[in-house]
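Troubleshooting entry. The earlier prediction with acetyl coenzyme *A gave an output that would not parse, so I re-checked the input for stray whitespace and re-submitted. Clean input:
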Amino acid sequence: PENVGILAMDVYFPKTCVDQAELEKHDGASTGKYTIGLGQTKMAFVDDREDIHSICLTVVSSLMEKYGVSYSDIGRMEVGTETIVDKSKSVKTVLMQLFAESGNYEVEGIDTTNACYGGTNALFNAINWVESSSWDGRLALVVAGDLAIYSSGSARPTGGAGVAALLVGPNAPIVIEVGARGTHMEHLYDFYKPDLSSEFPVVDGQLSVASYLKSFDMCYQRYMAKLERKLGLARGDASLIDYFVCHSPFTKQVQKAMAHISMYDFKRNPEDQRYASVQQYLDTPIEQSYTDKVMERAFIGVSKDELYKNKAEVAQYAAKNLGNLYCGSVYGGLASLISQVPSAELAGKRITLFSYGSGSAATMFSLIVRGDTDAIAKHVNIVERLAARTEVAPVDYEKVMELREKTHQLRSYTPVGPTDNFFPGTYYLVHVDDMYRRQYARS
Ligand code: ACO
């Protein structure tokens, strides 16, 4: 098969959100800490009516209906998530109930679990399947997303909720670029979920921020070396890349990632005029910037227009307005880009994605736009859909967080959240019976 890539996509996010400026006030944080310091506008959250099963049921059924795809056309489905309600029964098997009516039970693939990176592994599996000898000619579905919820404290404003679904197959308008990929994986305790009775992660915030940037540096170097080889260039730099779509715990982190691109490109081309203001860092190792805020700020300054504003910011729309989607973050970013930039402008462009998961697992890889993306833009419609949400006061948001904490993993439980404030077509939890079996309805 040729031109294997993304044929269609959709993103689901809950209807409720909290305003970050309001949350700053409510939390007694200094004005601007969440909005400027973290670069966030709104944060999506769910009450006890939604869980990882329901949000995945919603996004898959939405994609299939919007694009008119038949469930019998799917030969593989992979879910990437770190939100676990069951240690044994995969989310994928729950999603199989959507296939019942079509009679198609022959669907390969299962869940991938890792902080923020499961979706990327799921996508690679789907692409590999289509390109392999096991391919049966049908399409693959990739589902990537999470409910990102932190205990109260400094990490809480970096939560979020949402899930992306991607339809993968040959002759796609958005094609995976062969031979351009850089990966970095290592053993780290920066963010993990050892307490299986809680939704909250254990987080070493500063380590996770530094580890993201170190992984970004390693991936960019490896990715660029491969791109140079592929294109037959002696020296490549960010000018080869039209758009960056980065995993976004909060958008300030992506501004820092762009600063790291300019650190690396500067080292390889120090005479360039655009680096006049940072000449003093020529012999300073890039790693110093993990702790040296003055150095980091200098390169944020160098990269803010040419890299962040021109190439990366458009893909940060969902992240800014939803928060961290963990496994879905980078794909919410791709949806933001496709949804806002017209197809004619995207034609032939290289989109470079950076996926980072704590622990840690990271890959930089690219997509090339080869066909019309207008249908995806129309169906994702990110700006209008995000504007149609309901804002909840921080005090009520906190009550919902307490409710989730108290009722997490209960059996014989009927959720108390309202059932009249969903987007149409949203699946929600109706009851958990005495054997923990979950029953859902659709709005
Ligand atoms: N106005 C403007 N900026 C402000 C203000 C203000 N009033 N107050 C603080 N800031 C800035 C700070 O200078 C800092 O920016 P900088 O990093 O560019 O210097 C930023 O806001 C954050 O402030 P900190 O004091 O560093 O925040 P804190 O330590 O309280 O928490 C953290 C930040 C560590 C990111 C925390 O939210 C966290 O642990 N989040 C979860 C982990 C995470 O998201 N990690 C990212 C990668 S891993 C993953 O995706 C899960």
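This one parsed fine. The CA atoms of residues 56 and 163 lie 7 Å apart.
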